[in-house]
Design a protein that fits this description.
Helix content: 10-25%
Shape: globular
Number of domains: 2
CATH class of the largest domain: Alpha Beta
Number of strands: 16
CATH architecture of the largest domain: Roll
Distance between the termini: 18 Å
Order of helices and strands: HEHEEEEHEEEEHEEEEHEEE
Number of helices: 5
Strand content: 35-45%
Structural class: alpha+beta
Strand order of the largest sheet: 2-3-4-1-5-8-7-6
Radius of gyration: 17 Å
Protein name: Bleomycin resistance protein
CATH superfamily of the largest domain: 2,3-Dihydroxybiphenyl 1,2-Dioxygenase, domain 1
Length: about 270
């Protein structure tokens, strides 16, 4: 992980979060929607409201009445990896999706309109890591950051950074900055601020996942959250440890969706 504050600044930085290339939303597709809502409600204090009916069974997670994430239900016959997916902002989803294709990526869904909410596409980079593209309309994306229960950072875990980082730089015009402590770890910047990272971990990638994006959620107390996750039927994948950016841990929800926790330094 690198500097997490870049994508989760003070409440009210909505305009910056919708600069093209900036992570602006996270979404999860699961098989048991009701049970997963109960899990995240107990863990993060989320409440839920129905999303656009055209998207199928789908809810938006709210924290103090403000949208933070989305959760949808997979059709029974779709056996896809259960994973949190970050959406990167775009002013023109169709153009961005075409650039993804030209740069060796794949567009799996869309581009399509999400009713009046906006326009989206779901893509994968040349290594197979899945991400979304979001062109905002009525739905502005994550409405609050910087407090427990909100997305704090997104980092791509992949085999190596050189070629994959260049893919994202070409598609989203990121500027790359190496992380000094790790030669295969770079931060992606927009307008001088860090918004995401790419970390080459080679054979340390989970065999059942391959390259994938990891979303960090902010918590008030990482150790306390880990106890709650286990009690709720989740799993601890990497125990809590201190980092320069706070106390972090990697976990999975009851359906296996991996995510990380971040407790900011006090």
């Amino acid at each position: 992980m690198t500097e997490a504050r870049g994508s989760a600044g003070p409440i009210g930085e909505a305009d910056a979060r919708h600069t093209p290339g900036t992570p602006c939303w996270v979404s999860l597709m699961v098989h048991g929607l009701a049970a997963i809502q109960d899990f995240y409600a107990a863990l993060f204090g989320w409440e839920f409201q129905p999303g656009p009916p055209q998207l199928g069974p789908y809810v938006r997670a709210l924290l103090d009445g403000r949208e933070v994430a989305g959760i949808g239900q997979l059709p029974p016959d779709r056996h896809l990896p259960i994973a949190w997916t970050p959406y990167l902002a775009s002013n023109d989803v169709d153009l961005t999706a075409e650039t993804v294709r030209l740069c060796g990526g794949t567009v799996g869904v869309g581009p399509l309109d999400a009713v009046e909410a906006g326009r989206l596409a779901i893509c994968s980079d040349p290594s197979g890591a899945v991400f979304g593209i979001w062109q905002t309309a009525a739905h502005r994306g994550t409405a609050v950051t910087g407090v427990p229960g909100t997305p704090a950072w997104n980092e791509l875990l992949t085999f190596e950074t050189v070629n994959i980082a260049k893919f994202y730089e070409t598609v989203f015009a990121y500027e790359e900055e190496p992380v000094s402590a790790d030669p295969d770890h770079v931060t992606l910047h927009i307008d001088g601020r860090p918004v995401a990272a790419v970390h080459g971990v080679g054979n340390a990638l989970p065999r059942d996942r391959g390259p994938h994006w990891m979303t960090y959620f902010e918590v008030a107390d990482t150790d306390e959250a880990l106890v709650r996750i286990v009690d709720l039927g989740g799993h601890v994948l990497k125990p809590a440890h201190d980092s320069p950016h706070g106390r972090v841990a990697t976990v999975a929800d009851p359906e296996g969706a991996r995510f990380s926790l971040l407790q900011r330094p006090r």
